Amino acid sequence: MPKRLPPFAKNLASKSFNSLSHHLSLWHQVVRDHNLLDKARNRIVVGVIVFMAAFLFITIRLFDIMVFRNHSERQQINAERSSELVLERSDILDRHGEVLATHLITASVYANPKVIINAREAAEKLCALIPELDFDTTLARLESEKGFVWIMRHLSPRLQQSILHLGIPGIYLQKDQRRVYPYGAMACHVLGYCGLDNLGLSGVEKYFDVRLRQDKNPLVLSIDIRAQHIVHDELKAAIEEFQALEGNAMLLDLDSGEIIAMVSLPDFDPNHPNQNTKAATFNRNTLGVYEPGSTFKLINAAIALETNRIKLNTIYDARHPIKVGRFTITDWRPKHAGIITVRDVVMHSSNIGSAKIALDFGLAWQQKYFARFGLHTKPKLELPEIGAPIVNKNPTEATLISNSFGYGISVSPLQTFQAVAALVNHGEFRHLTLLKQKMPVVGAPIVSKETSAGIRNVMRHVVTGGSGRSAEVEGYHVIGKTGSAHIVRGKRYHANDKTTSFIGAFPGKNPRYLLLVMLDSPKPTPKTHGFSTGGWNACPTAGKMIARLAPMLGISPDFDYKDPMGGDVKVINHVAD
């Protein structure tokens, strides 16, 4: 049997065993901790790698969205906006520098549907704020796939602030420009108007659209807004007094060919283009074509004088009607017919006398001079709304006769105005203009100065002793001619509907301004003794205009001038047309 170990040996062995166990335990602990550190290190490395990969992915994604895609979308948005938004349109001024059209900086609201979170909620908020918006239309726009859609143009400052307070992601405000016309409808047919995209849609706004967008200098017109107001005021009063359907008038500077005033009624306010009607935007002066009636008797007499077929005192027998095919040419007031001079033919507006004058010079001369006067071609003017004449392409003797007193040919008032301007202004033809002229304009002679003087003499005779007496203004010695033409309804002339007119110049001693007044279907009144011809309505309207225009234009009355017709002119109740 083995011997027992001494106690000290047992203690030593026990201590050695315990120490060894402790060291082994420590070793195991160290090994275990080292493994844990390795695992932790590996996990950290993997985490860092994952984090960096995620960060890199996010960075690339944000760069793609913020730079590449945002740039592409901005290009698309800018392209869409640039096609609809035009800024910096230059002003339009009258001849004295009065602003007729300018621009107002505004803001418009638009959306990027790709950023909208809740299109229906956004549409509800916008429509609640802006009652003019249609909910279904607005919702459809906000749900579209486009990057840019207009919501509403030209908001008020208060509405702009309210839009900002909504704080809807994807709804933005864009600087915009609105065309403003300080005088409203006063010169609307000359100026025209712009659409919401600020592009010209009619008038000089359309004719000079590119120039107004590219040239920062103002466009200066020949129009005098003061004269425009006078003509507008008197024409409107005449339409109301005589219950006419429509009316138009023009004032011309004979020396330069500048149109000083142009009015067509009904009219419209170019500040509200969406409210314009077709009838209101129709320019009767330039776009409408009508049979001019008796004002053409001036041209008829001028052709005869110029071709040396007549003198002003040449005698004609106007006692008997003329048969042309199935038609009979008669005079409106046959009691003034008889054995009459050329001057009296025009003064009493004799159709029979005019027809016989035309037969003396013939169809060839008539057509030749009509072409010289610009009556066979579309006139030139700085407007897109220009009507073309309606002429007989195969004229006959019947055409010759009917044209002699303003029937059988339809021209715009602008064409009649231009032709008579040449007759009055020493026979010099000028294309009329709506632009202020910096240099004198030289006209092309189409009739002699002697013929022009003869026509002015005849026109003064009309005012002193014929149908134009109510156009006379003391001290200005007005010259002119009245006209009336029945209107075709269907395929025949309507007995009660006619276009009445007066065309005249002042001052008579040396005419500077030419005025045309036309009324559509004026009605007779007790004041006109049941008559509705030009001498009773267009003529007195012109007289009222001249009385206001002449002093404003700086023309002083001449009370010392010896009138070749002699005596004072008094308004009488005998009026032809």
Structure description:
Helix content is 41%, strand content 17%. It is of the alpha+beta class. It has two domains: 92-220, Penicillin-binding protein 2a (Domain 2); 228-552, DD-peptidase/beta-lactamase superfamily (Beta-lactamase, 3-Layer(aba) Sandwich), CATH 3.40.710. Strands 1, 2, 3, 4 and 5 form a five-stranded mixed β-sheet that branches. A five-stranded antiparallel β-sheet has the order 7-6-16-15-14, with helices on both faces. The longest helix has 78 residues, at 7-84. Mean pLDDT is 86; it is low at 68-72, 79-84 and 567-576.
Shape: rod-shaped
CATH class of the largest domain: Alpha Beta
Q: Name the structural class.
A: alpha+beta
Low-confidence stretches: 68-72, 79-84, 567-576
CATH topology of the largest domain: Beta-lactamase
* Strand composition percent: 15-25%
Work out the helix count.
16
Search tags:
577 residues; alpha+beta; Penicillin-binding protein 2a (Domain 2); Beta-lactamase; 2 domains; 16 helices; 41% helix; rod-shaped; disordered C terminus
Short description:
By secondary structure, this protein is of the alpha+beta class. The protein has helices at 7-84, 119-129, 135-142, 157-166, 188-191, 203-207, 209-214, 225-241, 278-281, 296-306, 342-347, 351-372, 397-404, 413-424, 449-465, 538-552; strands spanning 92-93, 99-111, 149-155, 171-180, 219-220, 246-253, 258-265, 315-317, 322-324, 327-329, 339-341, 428-429, 444-445, 479-489, 492-506, 513-520. The chain has two domains: 92-220, Penicillin-binding protein 2a (Domain 2) (Alpha-Beta Complex), CATH 3.90.1310; 228-552, Beta-lactamase.
